[in-house]
Write a structure and sequence with these properties.
Elements (H helix, E strand, L loop, with lengths): L32 E5 L7 E6 L2 E4 H7 L4 H9 L6 H6 L1 H15 L6 H5 L2 E3 L4 E3 L7 E4 L3 H11 L15 E3 L5 E3 L2 E4 L2 E4 L8 E4 L3 E2 L2 E7 L11 H4 L3 E8 L2 E2 H7 L13 E3 L4 E2 L7 E2 L17 H6 L1 E2 L2 E7 L1 H5 L5 E7 L7 H9 L10 E3 L14 H4 L7 E2 L5 E2 L7 E8 L7 E11 L6
Parallel strand pairs: 6-22, 8-16, 9-26
Antiparallel strand pairs: 1-2, 1-5, 2-3, 3-4, 6-7, 10-11, 12-15, 13-14, 13-22, 14-16, 14-17, 18-19, 20-21, 20-25, 23-24, 25-26
Helix pairs in contact: 1-2, 2-4
Bound molecules: manganese (II) ion.
């Protein structure tokens, strides 16, 4: 885990004036990475958010403003994915962060060179930030697992393995998109209530899942597990993730091998990846409730106990088509925090590799739905509406059990703590379109 240093100091100010606004997601203490372009005919390339601007890494690498490891890292960030930068490792990421913090700081002699490397975010479009070789989705919220389990198995909501083994499944990378993604309501096979045979048609119980994505930096060789002590150094950073889920398809298909077509039609990420070093001020002790088993030794470490949790505050908001047409903002459905997860990012990495499985730079791990301890902190409609039985009423009077065509779901994330800057993840937005052949 990273120590606090001058890059986290809340007194630092940038010569990019918009970065100094207290409401900005991207102050100089954040410096997250994305892949962007500023016009349709320009090549995608790596960038770093500062205020309402993007520092173009290709232009920065050519500017002569950086040296040494930081320059090597900027060169690796020039391409249309961040994989090369991710593969360089924590020493390079840290060197680039320090160099950019110093160069973007008010009074820096690099201002003239880097000012020419800025692109307004309002002109940018984004791409999925890495070539994701493999995507694995975990299930790290005990509250989500219990809420869901209660609907399927009232007598035994939480299965006996939950507190011992981090549960996950291998997802699909090809349908992962970036904020702004739209997708058609999936078709699929479902068993209607009371029916004796399944039918095929548009999903009737479409849901979102509030998650964080964990982007792998350096991977591991096949057969060489990543131990807890090294796990965080292999993580490049975190992003927002919406794991769209077709609950009716899922209910029919999930036994015995788990989610399949109910999950793989679309997954939406925020464009921005916040580095683990930027998250250092917001760490919290990782404590299990009294009476719960301690993790097995291979999933435990002193550092994980003292600071394994991260207080990333997370919200989900919904904007229906009618709200959009009437100029109404998205309305918040949920506010929770990543601090409530039952398994940490380091435990996800270590468990994933304990059998010898090799992770690679750019691989994506989802945390699973990050529901908090109370029902208003739930990260999916299936929990908030108790399986659709208690619809939500929106401020304009519309009701929702599950998502309807035209609905946009927006996830936001941010960190704040006394004595530290407030940093944010930007937004992860996606919109449901009608099923193919429907209007
Ligand atoms: Mn999920």
């Amino acid at each position: 885990m990273y120590n606090l240093n001058e890059t986290h100091d809340p007194v630092q100010r940038s010569w990019v004036a918009s970065a100094n606004a207290l409401t900005s997601d991207f102050p100089i203490q954040n410096l997250p990475f994305a892949v962007f372009r500023s016009a349709g005919d320009e090549a995608f390339r790596g960038g770093v958010a500062i205020g309402d601007q993007i520092l173009d890494l290709a232009a920065t690498a050519a500017s002569g403003a950086l040296q040494g490891l930081a320059q090597q890292a900027a060169l690796a960030g020039r391409g249309d994915t961040l994989n090369a930068l991710m593969a360089l490792g924590a020493t390079h990421w840290s060197a680039l962060r320090l160099a950019l913090s110093q160069a973007l700081r008010a009074g820096s002699s690099a201002q003239a060179k880097l000012a020419a490397c800025l692109v307004p975010q309002i002109q940018a479009e984004y791409a999925v930030p890495a070539r994701i070789g493999d995507y694995t989705d975990f299930y790290t919220s005990l509250y989500h697992a219990t809420n869901i389990g209660r609907q399927f198995r009232p007598d035994q909501p939480l299965l006996p393995n939950y507190k011992w083994v981090p549960i996950g499944y291998h997802g699909r990378a090809s349908s992962i998109g970036v904020s702004g993604q739209t997708f058609a309501r999936p078709l699929g096979q479902t068993l209607a209530p009371g029916a004796t045979q399944p039918s095929m048609g548009p999903c009737q119980r479409l849901d979102y899942e509030l998650e964080l994505g964990v982007f792998m930096g350096t991977g591991n060789a096949s057969g060489e597990p990543i131990e807890m002590a090294q796990a965080e150094a292999h993580i490049f950073g975190l992003c927002l993730l919406n794991d769209w889920s077709a609950r009716d398809i899922q209910a029919w298909e999930y036994q015995p091998l788990g989610p399949f077509l109910s999950k793989n039609f679309a997954t939406t990420l925020s464009p921005w990846i916040v580095t683990m070093e930027a998250l250092a001020p917001y760490r919290l002790p990782f404590v299990r409730p009294t009476g719960d088993p301690l993790p097995l030794p291979y999933l435990d470490s002193a550092a994980n106990q003292s600071g394994g949790a991260i207080d990333v505050q997370l919200s989900v908001s919904l904007q229906t088509q009618a709200m959009r047409e009437q100029g109404q903002n998205a309305t918040r459905l949920t506010l929770t925090s990543y601090r409530h997860a039952y398994w940490t990012a380091a435990q996800m990495v270590t468990h994933h590799t304990i059998n010898g499985c090799n992770l690679q730079a750019g691989d994506l791990l989802g945390t699973g739905t990050l529901s908090g301890p109370t029902i208003d902190q739930a990260g999916a409609l299936i929990e908030l509406t108790v399986g659709g039985k208690q619809p939500l009423t929106l401020p304009n009077g519309q009701r929702r059990s599950f998502l309807e065509d035209g609905d946009s779901v927006v996830i936001n994330g941010w960190c704040e703590r006394p004595g530290a800057a407030r940093i944010g993840f930007g937004a992860c937005r996606g919109t449901v379109l009608p099923a193919r052949g429907k209007t």
